[in-house]
Amino acid sequence: MRVPTDQRPIVGRELLSRRLETEFAVLSAESVRRCVADVLACMAHLGVEPAPAVVERMAREHLVGMVKSEPPSGRASLEGARLRPGPDDAR
Biased composition, Basic and acidic residues: where in the chain (predicted)? Predict the structure, then answer.
């Protein structure tokens, strides 16, 4: 079941997304924006006020988990390029 994201703008939502996109450059910008939107949707679903600092903290924790969960064969270098192809890469 798809839960609609809360479309109410929060203060600095775009700024937050851009800041996290810069910090997590190894992930696509769309993944980072989706993460922020998912955090907002989860907070709305739980009835929690989406304070910008809390949204940022939760999104950052999720993004760190995404980066750390990538298998070593697909780990990105500091420049964002893959060190070697992973099993999911096109051949």
Answer: 81-91
Query: ∠ at Cα 65 (81, 78), nearest 5°?
Result: 25
In the block, residue with structure tokens 């990538």 = 70
- pLDDT by residue (tens digit) across 44-71? 999 999 899 999 999 999 999 999 998 7
Please state, in angstroms and rounded to a whole number, the distance separating the CA atoms of residues 64 and 24.
Answer: 8
What one-letter code names the amino acid at 4? P
In a domain, 91, yes or no: no
Categorize the per-residue pLDDT at 7 as very low, low, confident or very high, splitting at 50, 70 and 90: low
Q: Are 50 and 6 in contact (CB under 8 A)?
A: yes
26 lies in which domain range? Answer: 13-67
The three-class DSSP label of residue 15 is: helix
In a domain, 62, yes or no: yes
- Residues constituting the chain: 91
